[in-house]
Amino acid sequence: MRLLFLGDVVGRPGRSVVAEHLPGLRERWRLDCVVINGENAAHGFGITETVCDELIQAGADAVTLGNHSFDQREALVFINRQERLVRPANYPPGTPGRGACIVETRTGARVLVVNVMGRVFMDAMDDPFAAVERELSACPLGEAADAVIVDVHAEATSEKQAFGHFLDGRASLVVGTHTHAPTADHRVLPGGTAYMSDAGMCGDYDSVLGMQKDEPIRRFLQKTPGSRWEVAGGEGTLCGIAVETDARGLAVGAWAVRIGPHLSETWPKAWD
Fold first, then answer.
1. Are 118 and 155 in contact (CB under 8 A)?
2. pLDDT lower than 70: segments of the chain
3. d(CA 132, CA 178)
4. Beta partners for residue 153, in sequence order
5. What local confidence, expressed as pLDDT, does residue 226 receive?
6. Tens digits of residue pLDDT in 83-120
7. Do the beta carbons of residue 23 and residue 59 sit within 8 Å?
C-alpha cells in the first residue's frame, strides 16, 4: 500500500494547501490511505465539524488530534458521530470520541489509525504506551489490520523515538506531530516500521509555529500577557511523510513530503 501522513494543519493556510494539492496527489501517487493531523485546523486551535468535513472532502481518510482536541467546544459533541476523527487514546476514560479507527481502502484493505499523546513536557495523561498496546492487541498488524499508522502527538523527541522502537515491526508507520517543524530523520527501522520524529505542519512557515510572528516574539521578550495569537496568513506548505508497504504491512520505503514555499521541496520521486 501507499500511505500519506500530513502534519498539523494550521488554520486557513494549512487547509488551503491541503485542498489545493491532496486531491491531485491521491490520484498521481495512487494513494491507498491518507491521514491528517487536524488539531490546529480551526483558527489555529482545535477543530470544528465544518473543518473536519473539509479535510475529509479534500481526501483525508482519517483526521487525528492532540492537546488542542477540544479547544472548539463543539468537538465535545460532534466527535462522537464522526467516526473518522480520532483523539488521543490515552485521554481518561469517559472522554468523548475514540482513540483509534479502522479505515477501509478502495481495495478493501483495512488500516488501523491510532492517536496517542506524549507525557513529557505535556499535560498529565494516561500511559500512552499502554494505550497503544491495547489498540494493537485488539487489531494487530497482519491479522486484523493490513496497515497500522500511529500518530504520536508529543513534545519530546526522545519519547517519540522510544515509541518508534517500541512499535518496530508492529506498525507500518509511527510519526510524531505537535512541534510543527519537519525533522530529517525519516527512515525505516530494522523491524520494518517507517518512522519520523515530526511530520511538520501544513501552514505558513513565515511564522512562529504557523502563527503571526509579532506576538510570540513580544512574549519571549517581555514575559507578559498580550493579545491572542493569530494564524499567519501567507501561503501554506504541505508537509508530511509518504510510506510504501509490502504484503505484510511493513514499510519498504519512507520519504519526506514538503511542497510549497520557505522549505526545500521534496517528495517520493519514484511515485511520479
1. yes
2. none
3. 18
4. 117, 177
5. 87
6. 999 999 999 999 999 999 999 999 999 999 999 999 99
7. yes
Is there a contact between 46 and 75 (Cβ–Cβ < 8 Å)?
yes
Identify the CA nearest to 132 among candidates 162, 88, 97, 93: 88
- Position 57 scores a pLDDT of 97
User: Which grid coordinates belong to 186?
Assistant: 525519516
| CA count, 13 A, side-chain hemisphere, 222 | 10
DSSP state string for 55-123: HHHHT-SEEE--TTTTSSTTHHHHTTT-TTEE--TTSPTT-SS-SEEEEEPTTS-EEEEEEEE--TTS-
Task: Please indicate whether residue 186 is annotated as part of the active site.
Answer: no
pLDDT the model gives residue 223: 87
Distance CA 100, CA 21 (A): 26
Single out the residue of 94, 101, 43 nearest to residue 72, CA to CA.
Answer: 43
Q: List the one residue out of 90, 50, 46 whose CA is nearest residue 68.
A: 46
Query: Which residues, in sequence order, are CB contacts of 231 under 8 Å at separation 6+?
Result: 10, 11, 12, 13, 43, 44, 203, 204, 210, 211, 212
Cell of 229: 495569537
Of the listed 68, 153, 178, 180, which one is catalytic? 68
Q: Give the containing element (helix H, strand E) for 36.
A: strand 33-37
